[in-house]
Predict the structure.
Amino acid sequence: MEPLTQRSLRDLRDAVRSGEVSAREVAQAHLNRIAEAEPSVSALLAVTADDALTQADAVDLARSRGDAIGALAGVPIALKDVICTRGVATTCGSRILSGWKPPYDATVTARLRAAGAVMLGKANCDEFAMGSSTENSAYGPTRNPWNLACVPGGSSGGSAAAVAVGEVAGSLGSDTGGSIRQPAALCGIVGLKPTYGRVSRFGLVAYASSLDQIGPMARSVEDAALLLDAIAGLDPLDATSVDAPPFRAESAMRGDIRGLRIGVPTEFMGDGVDGPVASAVRAAVEALCALGATAEECSLPTARHSLATYYILAPAEASSNLARYDGVRFGVRAAGGFGHAGMTEASREAGFGAETKQRILVGTYALSAGYYDAYYLQAQKVRTLIRRDFDAAFKRFDVLVTPTSPTVAFGIGERSDDPLAMKLADVCTLPANMAGIPGVSIPCGMDRGLPIGLQIMGRSFDEETTLRAAHAYEQATHWHTLRPEVAC
């Protein structure tokens, strides 16, 4: 029988419901896997073993009594360490929040608890979700389970690696410019960025509030859809949460894509995309067409400006959001005989890492008097043009297909001295954040023993069509069945 740590999220849920296995057995198997894999992979910043077993026992007790149990009862999960968990340290991968324990749960955390999911730990990430490799964490890098010398992507690299190596059946990440989809691609799993507003951001520690979105990561499209089912929906605690038609996982799993119209934007297949990646994506388009879809090249002319636009807007919002870390209310406070201003400066100097400081400085500059119109306001106008290009494309097509990442996973330290190359890792994913639309990454090939990701983007609040296309491709291919063979 397949080990519990390799079984799908759905299978584990069904096994617990039927009594084939107890929730405690599932949790303990995954805790054992964490003990095996963590010394090599370093995917988790905290392991909540005692709490996890208590939650699992509560599921088993409810089932033994014949009480109703949640839709994800007994499913082991991890949460990116930018998502608040009551009483459990939430550091955002930063020393400035070292040891901080939120007094409340994020809405997604509360919804997963209500669904019976069992939280095993908090996943490593780039500091305040700022990065594409999980090398910017103050607590050390996470390693890619397919090749321990490579990055897992970022900023949700810990969430991706934990799923890929079998420490958990699913996880949540956050996606501001590709931080769910890009690590999903590099680790060979499924990662979904929902439409902005589909999932509550209450309790998500903010990086760039108009771009951030929480989403699921799992080993199959169906598993990701089940996680989204549990966390999506209107939340009165989040003013950006939208009262959209409810998402239903079963509707996305129909599998029939006959007549689906696919657009392949030429801007995503040009210079900078490695040959094997481009070839794998073209082969994926052909596979989708063999299932009854039609495909045609198209153009998103302003998409090429997404990178520059993002690196004005996101740092500007970060400059505002991170101003709250002043050493007064929570987080690190520098010791010494400082006045208030000196204490704030010293606390930020000690608490923030280099990448975070750089983005705060860039954002503050873009918002400053004399530069606001030239940079921030101009970037907002370009963002509107990007959204209009997507709106026009979706009048012709049901989904758009691109590479998720222009390359497979790169070596740890390989891009540390080349910030432009690092930022280009998200060049294919950023446009979806600019437009606020859903995007999913699924495995579609291998290059030099490392996974390649296929990105499928859809209309706003049409996750069902987006995931239906992804599921149909997944079921027609074998890439999602591959597992890393690195000895952990």
